[in-house]
Amino acid sequence: QEIKQRIEKYNAKVTNCLLMKLNDDGTYTGFIKVHLKLCRPVTVPAGIRPQSIYDALKEVNLASMTDKRTSFYLPLDAIKQLHISSTTTVSEVIQGLLKKFMVVDNPQKFALFKEMRKDGQVLFQKLPLTEFPLYLRLLAGPDTDALSFVLKENETGEVEWDAFSIPELQNFLMILDKEEKEKIQQVQRKYEKFKQRLQQTL
Question: What residue stretches are annotated with the Ras-associating domain (predicted)?
Answer without folding.
Answer: 70-156
